[in-house]
Write a structure and sequence with these properties.
Layout lengths: L1 H18 L39 E4 L13 E4 L7 E7 L12 H20 L8 E6 L3 H5 L5 E7 L16 E2 L5
Parallel strand pairs: 3-6
Antiparallel strand pairs: 1-2, 1-3, 3-5, 4-5
Length: 182
């Protein structure tokens, strides 16, 4: 009986953890692209110094990316979009808060980033999020970056099954946002 109860707890835990993801779980078999492997994907062109260097339309790979988590802003590598890549930036929100505003916390900032990226998805990609074979992930400042003045939320699209992309996925290249636009 104790083993059955433990198995139920484990199954429920896995379900709760995967259902709280900002990335859809990959359906079906694993692809050649492993988002959990460090340095996965095509050869990289050198690290990006800071997320602020990313703009709408940029394609990149990340050394560390896991569904449900924000993309780690360290270890990003710009890739020409005509080459195989993991992600493409489709929206940037400057979220220009006054410099004295305290860090809101990881969870509120994650919720804000998810809201911004979901709202921009259809306009930028040209298809509704739920009808798309693409998903999004966010890059957002942590407490240290916030303290240094970084307020940017960056939205990046990736394949729902974590296959590498080639070419642009953007329907428009004018999806820079500002907090005043709503």
């Amino acid at each position: 009986m104790r083993r059955i109860a433990w198995a139920v707890v484990m199954v429920v835990s896995v379900f709760v953890l995967t259902s709280c993801s900002d990335s859809k779980a990959p359906p079906g078999a694993a692809s050649a692209f492993d988002p959990f492997a460090a340095g996965s994907g095509s050869a990289s062109a050198g690290p990006v110094s800071a997320p602020a260097a990313l703009a709408v339309g940029d394609c990149f790979n990340s050394d560390q990316f896991a569904p449900g988590l924000s993309i780690d802003p360290h270890g990003l590598h710009l890739i020409p979009c005509d080459e195989l890549h993991q992600h493409q930036v489709y929206a940037v929100d400057g979220n220009a808060e006054a410099s004295g505003v305290p860090f809101p916390g990881d969870e509120p900032l994650r919720a804000f980033a998810d809201e911004v990226c979901l709202a921009a998805f259809e306009r930028a990609i040209g298809v509704a999020y739920l009808q798309s074979t693409l998903d999004f992930a966010t890059i957002k400042p942590d407490a240290a970056a916030w303290k240094a003045g970084d307020r940017a939320v960056i939205c990046a699209v990736h394949d729902v099954e974590f296959n590498e992309l080639q070419g642009t996925r953007l329907a428009t290249t004018t999806t820079s946002l500002s907090s005043e636009s709503g």
